Amino acid sequence: MAESTGGTGATERVADVLLLFTDGPPTLGVSRVSRELDLSKAVVHRILQSLTSRNLIAYDPASREYRLGPAAAALGSRALRDSDLRTAALPFLADLRDRLHETVTISAKVHGGRVYLDQVVGTHEITMSVELGRRFPLHAGSSGKCMLAHSARDEVDRLLADELTALTPATPTDPDALRAELVRIRERGYAASAGERQGDAGSVAVPVFGPGGLVGAVSVCGPRFRVTEEFVAATAPELIEAADRITARLGGTAPARAVPTPTGRTP
After folding, report:
1. 87, 149, 197, 219: which could join 140 in a potential S-S bond, CB 3.0 to 4.6 Å?
2. Is 255's pLDDT higher than 60?
3. Contacts by 2-9 with C-beta closer than 8 Å and gap 24+?
4. Per-residue pLDDT reduced to its tens digit, 56-109
């Protein structure tokens, strides 16, 4: 089993156990955690007991499984409230929603994927909404793909060397085809998706940068029957302009792109 004995290794194991609860089912047992992280059950049990004592994890005696506790919820709420990316993006999300009438989201890149930080839901009777705080893979959906396109080469190589899980029949799972798409995304400045993460949804997304580089992505999403190729082509320049303004607020630098952006709009 891959169990380091050093202090850093112990800290990483605790973090990995806690992060496992951000994906998949709402409750997990010792055996499932042990299997997912390749840790002994004894180690997992000790970690879960420690997290439970701090209310980061809660134990359900009926199911003998664990779920995120109230302290984890408090940490998540504080992280969202204090997120510089979310704060910088919110005025632009509202402006885009008012003009495009579709749901607009802001995502942050995290270890092993990305999470939605916030959304402004569209005005149509039939609209899309996203799950905040849940980690999603980078290879599925426009937000993830535009982040992946601007990630370090060694990170892209590691991801493409592993099996790419199909979330829907449309999820990209061919490494060579995805690598070629990432090149196109970098060139044009945006990514598009048709049913890759959620079967009935379409989206277009643009990356956002901070002083240290890539931090997240802003996207517009809606039902696939409305997010057509024509919608993507018309929306991409406006989304690029918004992403560049968010980047400027964060003190980052946007990359050069082939797609022209409109001017003169300030939310």
Report:
1. 197
2. yes
3. 2/38, 2/39, 3/39, 3/40, 3/43
4. 888 988 888 998 888 877 777 666 666 789 999 999 999 999 999 999 999 999
208: nearest Cα among 121, 103, 108: 108
The tens digit of pLDDT for each residue in 146-194 reads 999 999 999 999 999 999 999 999 999 999 999 999 999 999 999 999 9
Tell me the angle at which helices 229-250 and 84-100 cross, rounded to the nearest 10 degrees. 150
Average pLDDT of the residues in 12-26: 81
Which structure tokens are listed for 2?
């891959």
The DSSP bridge partners found for residue 207 are 217
Q: What whole-number distance in Å separates Cα of residue 60 and Cα of residue 151?
A: 39
Taken as a whole, the chain contains a residue count of: 267
Q: C-alpha 179: how far from its chain's center?
A: 19
Q: What is the pLDDT of residues 105-145, one digit of tens each?
A: 999 998 889 999 999 999 999 899 998 888 899 999 999 99
- Contact between 166 and 212 under an 8 Å Cβ cutoff? The reply is no
How far apart are the two ends of the chain, measured CA to CA in Å? 53
Angle, helices 41-53 vs 30-37, to 10°: value is: 120
Measure the CA–CA gap between 114 and 48, rounded to whole angstroms: 25
Q: Tokens 């990356």 appear where?
A: 207
CA triple 147-151-156, angle to 5 deg: 105
